[in-house]
Amino acid sequence: MINEKSYELGNKRSSIREIFEYAKTRSAEIGAENVFDFSIGNPSVPAPKQMNETIVRLIEETPSVLLHGYTSAQGGKDVRDTIAGNYARRFGVPLLGDGLYMTCGAAASLTICLHALCNAGDEVIVLAPYFAEYRVFVEGSGAKLVVVASDEQTLLPDFSALEKAITPQTKGIIVNSPNNPSGVVYDGETLRRLARLLTAKSTAYGTRIFLISDEPYRELIYDKETVVESPMRYYPDTLVCYSYSKALSLPGERIGYIAVNPYMVGGNAVYFAICGAGRKLGFVCAPALFQRVAAACDGLTADLGVYKRNRDLLYNALTAQGFTCVYPRGAFYLFVKAPEGDSKAFCERAKARELLFVPGDDFGYAGWVRIAYCVETEKLERALPSFALLAKEYGL
Questions:
Q1: Peptide bond preceding 129: is omega within 30 degrees of 0, i.e. cis?
Q2: Which of 56, 122, 184, 315 has CB atoms 3.0–4.6 Å from 118's, for a disulfide?
Q3: For residue 168, how far is the Cα from the chain centroid?
Q4: Which CATH number applies to 4-48+302-393?
């Protein structure tokens, strides 16, 4: 009568959403000021002033029928040319608008790429810890998800384990830097090493292994010594999936893009497959108003200083209290080791103190938890005594 897999996905929310909904219920019971919800990556910093001004200007200056009408299926050409030109200047990659496909955010970008590339029997590798919805996206495309644990000390790729996991059936690997949930950033040497491995394996098997770079947190970098590079510079068979949700604080507007590497051999065919996958999935013509907003505001960010302040406050406090944490160079998450080794038990004990965060099991990394620090700084400060009591319970 109905698709059972779709029913299963709809009937049971992800743990992140379950905790988020619990927080709303609990807030209604005891007051929002008494609930410390660190579950969801919802930007807490207002969108940049220029973005709101751009929306007003577009509404006032552009005829309504044009502003809200259809664009080309892959996005307006002027929008794509502007964004591609900005990318080329920033990263030194000769990207053109004809290699860009506008999407309804990063989830749509990933889903479209996977449907464009994958056939039955293909495998897609993800590196744990990984964004939980990757499994849904990969399996929804008909491919098999293969999970490879990252290096335990750095949470960068474990290249020995990755090399063993690549097979003739490997169609692609998804990388996410800055990473959700750890905040780890891949440096240039990591990207070069990854490119060498994928090139060698593609040659050995006579196949093409695509690198899908999921980059919604690309602009959320807090230390001057941390440099974000484009994987397109190192590996031709790269697709970049981007969303403006985090940088511009507009996650509810759903706007992003897919970029096909201009160095890719046969890139036109891959681009047409992306257009076809978007058509098949119904992701045709991303929101017209926000295509124009994205082009006008590309390169801007909300006030990242708030997130940096929160990062430093939380990381310094928790490490001083005795918790083991991964230092996050980007994104807005802190990955913390569960003192008892059981992340779900740790979350339940924290919940008793109205501290809400997400078990690492959902990210393929049991024994750790993710704390989203994209909250008001004042809220974070009020939560620190509860963290201290939690640490005391564990004898840290």
A1: yes
A2: 122
A3: 27
A4: 3.90.1150.10
Q: Confirm if 110 and 137 have CB atoms less than 8 A apart.
A: yes
Residues near 101 by Cβ (< 8 Å), separated by ≥ 6?
A: 74, 75, 80, 112, 257, 258, 260, 271, 274, 275, 278
Q: Which residues pair with 333 in a beta bridge?
A: 372
Task: Report the b/e string of 15-29 with b at 16+ CB within 10 A.
Answer: bbeebbeebeebeee
Residues 206-224 pLDDT 10s:
999 999 999 999 999 999 8
**Is residue 74 within 8 Å of 102, Cβ to Cβ?**
yes
Helical pair 343-351 and 377-393, crossing angle rounded to 10 deg:
110
The answer, as to whether pTM is greater than 0.85, is: yes
If one counts every other C-beta atom within 10 angstroms of the C-beta of residue 325, the result is 20
Whether 100 and 84 have beta carbons less than 8 Å apart is answered as yes
| Contact call for residues 59 and 46 (beta carbons, < 8 A) | no
Domain ranges of the chain: 4-48+302-393, 50-297
Q: How confident is the model at residue 337 (pLDDT cuts 50, 70, 90)?
A: very high
Give residue 10's pLDDT.
82
